[in-house]
From TrEMBL:
Keyword vocabulary terms for this entry: GTP-binding, Initiation factor, Mitochondrion, Nucleotide-binding, Protein biosynthesis, Transit peptide
Biased composition (Basic and acidic residues): 111-123, 388-433
Name used for this protein in its record: Translation initiation factor IF-2, mitochondrial
Keyword GTP-binding: yes
Domain Tr-type G: residue ranges: 127-296
Residue spans crossing the bilayer: none
Role, per record: One of the essential components for the initiation of protein synthesis. Protects formylmethionyl-tRNA from spontaneous hydrolysis and promotes its binding to the 30S ribosomal subunits. Also involved in the hydrolysis of GTP during the formation of the 70S ribosomal complex.
Length: 667
């Protein structure tokens, strides 16, 4: 972050700042008799210790000495100083630090695009269709209600009968003749980010609750999203046609969770409907239109376009994104920026795939012509030309890189310090080796180095995954959902997430890292499957979100080492020891034992305990009854036991035979 440097005299004497490392004593600096007026100096957000002196016209050795006087004992050349520390040090050199925030703000205003300020008096603006988001728990009938209003059947095409990605539809209502834009959000727990986006860009939330299921976790989650967004709520109690429906129970549950419904003296309207039979749907339509008229939604139809990316995917025609226009009118040929990409609009299509010539405020439309794939939730702003759009994207990428560098500063400092210590130790060892003429003894690693090594080589196994999905929202949901399977023994690691079919590069990447590919809601690709099998890569194909978790869980369990348990088969006690002749002038010591429990068998795994200490773990090589070799001896019998390559037993030792049972671990 660069800062302007201004020469300016100051009548105020700057207050002396003492910089101290944590728990370091404050060092008192000698007072100067006379001070020149402080010179303004720019301070970057992050600057290395070796670069700071040259940027401040200070001699390097004097700078290091000053840092040590101020209490910094870990002053290695690669250390990165943050803006606050750099500014405080600058004041010690009689500089008046000017931080980059002001300069960066000016650069942002010059290079970035921002939405226009809201018009104070909207009464003269044209009205726009309200944006209504349907939210609720999975399988409570949200899409069925929308299908009835649209006179279509989206739910029939949904995998598993649940909505997998956010849908935006402009619906002309037959009763009122008005048009309403509906957003249908998924109800499954994995799609929290989609529900939050739906709540943030909407005007009204219709909270759907099944009459036979009442309030569920995602109902409360949807309620929280709507409250955080400050959006008015209508409650639709669905499935009232079912015999087990209990409307009063639903109302009581809602009231218990803070929903002030009209029946109990509140202002939240509750409508009982059946998306299957159509009962109460006219009441829901009327309540939605009435509330939108009260709220009186208006927006400018002219001026630069503003909006939001609702969903993004890749089709045969290229990269496309569903954009909900907020202000202005979007037409083909317009240059728009979304997040860190831009594009020139080639075509606009409505939800039915028909080409439209323009889209005004409150209208969702599918846009193609993107240079790169935008992300769901990105703000869309119109740029005056392609050059400006490219400059905006470049600035945003630079800003993201600076912010990432600032966040990684502490990790960078720690890594560089450990590396500095390692080099210093190696140099000391080399010097000692040269001076003594003998090999130097390896010094133990420092605690920081040990911690760093432990961080790189944890006991927890990691299994890499690459996610490919039909739309960006689904990829985002799967990537957020899979880490819930993390356990102390194993954890899934998302290497990359993208949209579109599985390509050869994805298979090569997965084969290189030993990972797996998750193909969510994508059409079957036999060629990719065959290529993956040839390279030993498994493609987990599924189109239902909760089954993805089962597939990943199966993969993780297959990577875990088996759970080995020991089951005791028999117990005996050494009563006497004697030796026998085994031929070729060799003798073998035998433990005369009495079997106390179970069965003692020849060739069994055995451990010998002396008190609480295990003194032998091996196998039984010889088992005799009197002078006969036997295969096993049972409880209450006496036998002679010979141990494989071990004869140091004593009278009173406890002998246990056991078997190891291997079981598959479960998460």
């Amino acid at each position: 972050m660069a800062v302007a440097v201004r020469k300016e005299k100051s009548t105020k004497r700057p207050r002396r700042l003492m910089l101290c490392a944590k728990n370091a004593p404050r060092a008192k600096l000698p007072e100067r008799r006379r001070r020149r007026p402080p010179e303004r100096r720019s301070v970057a957000k992050a600057v290395s210790r070796s670069h700071y002196p040259s940027s401040s016209a200070v001699h390097y050795d004097n700078f290091v000495e000053r840092l040590e006087d101020l209490g910094y004992d870990d002053v290695f050349p690669g250390k990165v100083l943050n803006a606050e520390t750099s500014g405080m040090i600058a004041m010690e050199y009689n500089f008046d630090p000017v931080f980059e925030d002001a300069a960066e703000k000016g650069e942002e205003e010059e290079r970035d695009l921002k939405a226009r300020p809201e018009v104070e008096d909207k009464s003269l603006l044209p009205s726009r269709p309200p944006v209504v988001t349907i939210m609720g728990h999975v399988d409570h009938g949200k899409t069925t209600i929308l299908d009835y209003l649209r006179k279509s059947s989206v739910a029939a095409g949904e995998a598993g009968g649940i909505t997998q990605h956010i849908g935006a539809f402009s619906v002309p209502l037959s009763g009122s003749g008005k048009s309403i834009t509906f957003l249908d959000t998924p109800g499954h727990a994995a799609f929290l980010a989609m529900r939050q986006r739906g709540a943030n860009i909407t005007d009204i939330v219709v909270l759907v609750v099944a009459a036979d299921d009442s309030v569920k976790p995602q109902t409360l989650e949807s309620l929280r999203c709507a409250r955080e967004a400050g959006v008015p709520i209508l409650v639709a109690i669905n499935k009232i046609d079912k015999p087990e429906a209990d409307v009063e129970r639903v109302k009581n549950d809602l009231a218990r969770h803070g929903v002030e419904i009209e029946d109990f003296g509140g202002d939240t309207q509750v409508i009982c409907v059946s998306g299957k039979t159509g009962k109460g749907m006219e009441d829901l339509e009327e309540a939605t239109v009435t509330l939108s008229e009260i709220l009186d939604h208006r927006a400018e139809a002219d001026g630069p376009v503003e909006g939001w990316v609702v969903e993004a995917t890749t089709k045969s025609s290229g990269r496309v994104a569903t954009v909900l226009v907020k202000r202005g009118t979007l037409r083909p040929g317009a240059v728009i920026v979304a997040g860190k990409t831009w594009g020139r609009v080639r075509t606009l299509k409505n939800e039915a795939g028909q080409i439209v010539h323009e889209a005004g405020p409150g209208i969702p439309v599918e846009v193609d012509g993107w240079r790169h794939q935008p992300s769901a939730g990105d703000e869309v702003l119109q740029a005056p030309n392609e050059q400006k759009a490219g400059d905006v994207v470049e600035y945003r990428q630079e800003k993201e890189e600076r912010e990432r560098t600032a966040q990684d500063m502490e990790a960078i400092n720690e890594t560089r310090r450990v590396e500095q210590e390692r080099r210093a130790r190696e140099k000391a060892e080399e010097s000692a080796k040269k001076s003594s003429g003998t090999a130097a003894i390896d010094a133990p690693p420092s605690p920081a180095e040990t911690a760093s090594t432990a961080q790189k080589e944890p006991g927890q196994l990691t299994v890499p995954f690459i996610i490919k999905a039909d739309v960006s929202g689904s990829a985002e949901a799967v990537a957020a959902y899979i880490p819930s399977l993390t356990s102390p023994l194993i954890a899934p690691q998302i290497l990359q997430s993208g949209i579109g079919p599985v390509h050869e590069s994805d298979i090569e990447f997965a084969a290189t890292v030993g990972g797996h590919i998750i193909a969510f809601n994508l059409p079957a690709n036999n060629d990719a499957k065959a290529a993956a099998e040839a390279k030993g890569v498994r493609i987990l194909e599924n189109n239902i979100i909760y089954r993805v978790l089962d597939d990943v869980k199966e993969v993780l369990e297959g990577k875990l080492p088996p759970l080995v348990t020991q089951r005791v088969l028999g117990e005996a006690e050494v009563s006497v020891s004697f030796d026998i002749d085994i031929g070729r002038r060799k003798r073998m010591w035998i433990a005369g034992c009495k079997v106390r429990n179970g069965v003692v068998g020849k060739g069994s795994r055995v451990r010998v305990m002396r008190g609480s200490e295990k003194i032998y773990d091996g196998t039984i090589s010889s088992l005799k009854n009197v002078k006969k070799d036997v295969q096993e001896m049972r409880k209450g019998t006496e036998c002679g036991i010979g141990f494989d390559m071990w004869e140091h037993f004593k009278v009173g030792d406890q002998v246990q035979t056991y078997e190891e049972v291997s079981e598959k671990r479960r998460l």
